[in-house]
Amino acid sequence: MANGTTNRKPNKPKARVRASWPWALILVALIIDLFAFTWVREEYRRTGYDISRLTMRNQALLERKDALKIELARLRSPARIAEIAREQLGLKMPEPEQVRALP
Description:
Elements lengths: L11 H64 L2 H10 L16
Protein backbone atom coordinates (compact mmCIF):
# COMPACT_ATOMS: atom_id res chain seq x y z
CA MET A 1 0.00 0.00 0.00
CA ALA A 2 2.96 2.19 0.20
CA ASN A 3 3.15 2.76 -3.52
CA GLY A 4 -0.47 3.94 -3.78
CA THR A 5 -2.06 0.72 -5.00
CA THR A 6 -4.86 -0.80 -3.08
CA ASN A 7 -4.87 -4.40 -2.15
CA ARG A 8 -7.97 -5.67 -3.95
CA LYS A 9 -9.05 -9.23 -4.41
CA PRO A 10 -9.91 -10.23 -7.95
CA ASN A 11 -13.63 -10.60 -8.75
CA LYS A 12 -13.49 -14.25 -9.60
CA PRO A 13 -16.76 -15.15 -7.84
CA LYS A 14 -18.67 -12.51 -9.82
CA ALA A 15 -17.05 -13.64 -13.01
CA ARG A 16 -17.98 -17.23 -12.16
CA VAL A 17 -21.60 -16.18 -11.50
CA ARG A 18 -21.71 -14.31 -14.82
CA ALA A 19 -20.31 -17.32 -16.63
CA SER A 20 -22.81 -19.71 -15.00
CA TRP A 21 -25.94 -17.77 -16.05
CA PRO A 22 -26.04 -19.23 -19.57
CA TRP A 23 -25.72 -22.72 -18.11
CA ALA A 24 -28.47 -22.04 -15.60
CA LEU A 25 -30.78 -20.82 -18.37
CA ILE A 26 -29.99 -23.91 -20.44
CA LEU A 27 -30.73 -26.11 -17.43
CA VAL A 28 -34.03 -24.35 -16.76
CA ALA A 29 -34.95 -24.69 -20.46
CA LEU A 30 -34.17 -28.42 -20.35
CA ILE A 31 -36.26 -28.92 -17.22
CA ILE A 32 -39.20 -27.07 -18.79
CA ASP A 33 -38.77 -29.15 -21.94
CA LEU A 34 -38.77 -32.35 -19.86
CA PHE A 35 -41.99 -31.35 -18.09
CA ALA A 36 -43.61 -30.40 -21.41
CA PHE A 37 -42.55 -33.71 -22.98
CA THR A 38 -43.92 -35.65 -20.01
CA TRP A 39 -47.21 -33.75 -20.11
CA VAL A 40 -47.62 -34.35 -23.85
CA ARG A 41 -46.96 -38.08 -23.45
CA GLU A 42 -49.47 -38.29 -20.62
CA GLU A 43 -52.10 -36.49 -22.71
CA TYR A 44 -51.34 -38.82 -25.64
CA ARG A 45 -51.78 -41.87 -23.40
CA ARG A 46 -54.97 -40.52 -21.84
CA THR A 47 -56.38 -39.68 -25.29
CA GLY A 48 -55.62 -43.22 -26.44
CA TYR A 49 -57.53 -44.66 -23.48
CA ASP A 50 -60.44 -42.30 -24.16
CA ILE A 51 -60.56 -43.36 -27.81
CA SER A 52 -60.49 -47.02 -26.82
CA ARG A 53 -63.25 -46.56 -24.25
CA LEU A 54 -65.43 -44.58 -26.67
CA THR A 55 -64.89 -47.15 -29.43
CA MET A 56 -66.13 -49.92 -27.14
CA ARG A 57 -69.10 -47.78 -26.07
CA ASN A 58 -69.91 -47.05 -29.71
CA GLN A 59 -69.84 -50.77 -30.51
CA ALA A 60 -72.16 -51.53 -27.59
CA LEU A 61 -74.56 -48.80 -28.70
CA LEU A 62 -74.59 -50.14 -32.27
CA GLU A 63 -75.44 -53.61 -30.96
CA ARG A 64 -78.22 -52.11 -28.81
CA LYS A 65 -79.54 -50.21 -31.85
CA ASP A 66 -79.69 -53.43 -33.88
CA ALA A 67 -81.53 -55.21 -31.04
CA LEU A 68 -84.01 -52.34 -30.78
CA LYS A 69 -84.64 -52.42 -34.55
CA ILE A 70 -85.46 -56.12 -34.31
CA GLU A 71 -87.74 -55.53 -31.33
CA LEU A 72 -89.50 -52.66 -33.13
CA ALA A 73 -90.10 -54.85 -36.18
CA ARG A 74 -91.54 -57.55 -33.92
CA LEU A 75 -93.81 -55.06 -32.13
CA ARG A 76 -95.07 -53.60 -35.42
CA SER A 77 -95.89 -56.94 -37.02
CA PRO A 78 -99.51 -57.12 -38.23
CA ALA A 79 -99.94 -60.63 -36.81
CA ARG A 80 -99.06 -59.43 -33.32
CA ILE A 81 -101.36 -56.42 -33.58
CA ALA A 82 -104.25 -58.62 -34.75
CA GLU A 83 -103.65 -61.05 -31.89
CA ILE A 84 -103.70 -58.24 -29.29
CA ALA A 85 -106.87 -56.83 -30.88
CA ARG A 86 -108.63 -60.21 -30.65
CA GLU A 87 -107.42 -61.43 -27.27
CA GLN A 88 -106.93 -58.32 -25.15
CA LEU A 89 -109.37 -55.85 -26.72
CA GLY A 90 -112.06 -58.30 -27.78
CA LEU A 91 -112.17 -57.02 -31.35
CA LYS A 92 -113.16 -59.18 -34.30
CA MET A 93 -113.45 -58.77 -38.03
CA PRO A 94 -116.81 -57.26 -39.06
CA GLU A 95 -119.48 -59.41 -40.69
CA PRO A 96 -120.25 -58.56 -44.32
CA GLU A 97 -123.62 -57.05 -43.35
CA GLN A 98 -121.85 -54.72 -40.89
CA VAL A 99 -119.73 -53.15 -43.63
CA ARG A 100 -121.14 -49.99 -45.22
CA ALA A 101 -119.83 -48.47 -48.41
CA LEU A 102 -119.31 -44.73 -48.27
CA PRO A 103 -120.20 -42.61 -51.30
